[in-house]
């Protein structure tokens, strides 16, 4: 039994979200205005599209906050959502390639990246399955069906190709098993085959191997595979403590590719300095802390796993993106949640946050006797 408390949502997580959105919107405009003018003859093209995504996302959150019935626990919603994500991933492969990839479903002028939706649908599916099998977590038959589903999703996402997102999704799903109570030895039994799976696909594309080489020795090919890593480090390093000021970045002037998407954190480092980059990290750690607090206080096992999964998905994605920008990890093609330009990522992140805040409004109903 649980009690729904309207407007009793986690205020700290909500404020951290708004702060990240505000900084992200400003930095999307700053990092994209020159490129936007060059490509679309409009300094505000990417900024306006980002604001549209922000408005739609805030509407999602406000709508989900008012929903008293936990729709995300419903059997038909979870499996329908999973099937819908799967169908969209298949449609991606049938769409005309965009930038030599098949990551988007496009209808007229609207474009959407289903792999972002797949993260949420798989977290809900795994949480539902683990909740139903919570007394048989250490029986191997418990994991046959979810592992098959996960492999199917991973293969479709890698086929796009989007190796970084597939790897992130796999890590999140495996961690959910551990959080749910799977013993460490069984966790390793599952983890080792998946590690082999990703090593196999790593060697199927030469450019992935080149990224590994560039990560370890970018200076060996500064004008080729090492160019982006070097430029990213230059952007962060040139910002110093306080930055060169908003709008004054040099690296965004066509030196750093993907300045408004995957490498926007480098522009933050250049324009806002160490203070700006630490502020972003601080906000994500607040998000992480409050998300885990929501998970710990959730009224049932299912909600605990969902809250933990959604929190870890957003936080790990942020850490992975920042690690890539700082040269601590090979390039992964992962955007910075709530900061990078990209409506698919933005809307799906808002959807995740909406569910998190809805869970935070639900409290266990403790009956007192006597």
Structure summary:
The protein is mainly alpha-helical. The protein is built from twelve helices and four strands. The mean pLDDT is 90.
Structure description:
- There is one protein chain.
- This protein is mainly α.
- The protein has one domain.
- Helix content is 66%, strand content 3%.
- The strands form two sheets. Strands 1-4 form a two-stranded antiparallel sheet. A two-stranded antiparallel sheet has the order 2-3.
- α3 packs parallel to α5 (144-159) and α11 runs antiparallel to α12 (343-360).
The biggest sheet, with number of strands, parallel, antiparallel or mixed sense and barrel status, is:
2 strands, antiparallel
- The counted number of beta strands is 4
Instruction: Work out the helix count.
Output: 12
End-to-end separation in angstroms reads 19 Å
Task: State the main characteristics.
two-stranded antiparallel ribbon; 370 residues; single chain; globular; 4 strands; 66% helix; two-stranded antiparallel sheet; mainly alpha
Task: Provide the fold topology.
Blueprint: E1 2-4, H1 11-40, H2 45-65, H3 75-94, E2 105-107, E3 110-112, H4 114-132, H5 144-159, H6 163-180, H7 184-202, H8 206-216, H9 227-238, H10 264-297, H11 301-325, H12 343-360, E4 362-364
Helix pairs in contact: 1-2, 1-10, 2-12, 3-4, 3-5, 4-5, 4-6, 4-11, 4-12, 5-6, 6-7, 6-11, 9-10, 10-11, 10-12, 11-12
């Amino acid at each position: 039994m649980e009690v729904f408390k309207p407007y009793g949502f986690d205020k700290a997580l909500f404020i951290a979200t708004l702060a990240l959105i505000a900084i992200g919107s400003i930095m999307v405009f700053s990092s994209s205005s020159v490129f936007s003018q060059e490509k679309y003859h409009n300094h505000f093209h990417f900024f306006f599209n980002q604001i549209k995504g922000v408005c739609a996302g805030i509407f999602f959150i406000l709508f989900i906050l008012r929903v008293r019935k936990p729709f995300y626990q419903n059997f038909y919603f979870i499996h329908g959502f999973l099937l819908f994500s799967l169908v969209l991933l298949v449609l991606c492969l049938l769409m005309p390639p965009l930038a030599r990839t098949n990551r988007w479903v496009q209808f007229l002028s609207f474009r959407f990246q289903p792999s972002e939706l797949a993260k949420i649908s798989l977290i809900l599916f795994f949480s539902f399955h683990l909740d139903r099998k919570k007394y048989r977590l250490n029986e191997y038959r418990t994991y046959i069906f979810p592992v098959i589903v996960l492999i199917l999703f991973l293969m479709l996402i890698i086929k796009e190709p989007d190796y970084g997102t597939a790897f992130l999704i796999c890590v999140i799903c495996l961690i959910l098993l551990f959080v749910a109570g799977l013993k460490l030895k069984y966790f390793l039994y599952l983890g080792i085959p998946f590690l082999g799976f990703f090593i196999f696909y790593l060697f199927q594309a030469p450019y992935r191997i080149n990224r590994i080489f560039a990560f370890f020795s970018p200076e060996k090919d500064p004008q080729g595979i090492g160019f982006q890593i070097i430029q990213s480090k230059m952007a962060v390093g040139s910002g110093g403590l306080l930055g060169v000021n908003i709008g004054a970045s040099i690296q965004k002037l066509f030196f750093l590719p993907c300045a408004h998407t995957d490498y926007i954190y480098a522009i933050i480092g250049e324009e806002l300095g160490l203070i700006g980059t630490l502020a972003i990290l601080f906000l994500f750690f607040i998000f992480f802390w409050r998300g885990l607090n929501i998970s710990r206080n959730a009224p049932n096992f299912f909600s605990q796993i969902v809250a933990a999964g959604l929190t870890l998905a957003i936080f790990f994605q942020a850490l992975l993106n920042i690690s890539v920008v700082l040269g601590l990890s090979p390039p992964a093609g992962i955007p910075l949640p709530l900061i990078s330009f990209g409506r698919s990522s933005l809307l799906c992140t808002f959807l995740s946050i909406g569910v998190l805040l809805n869970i935070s409004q639900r409290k266990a109903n403790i009956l007192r006797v006597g």
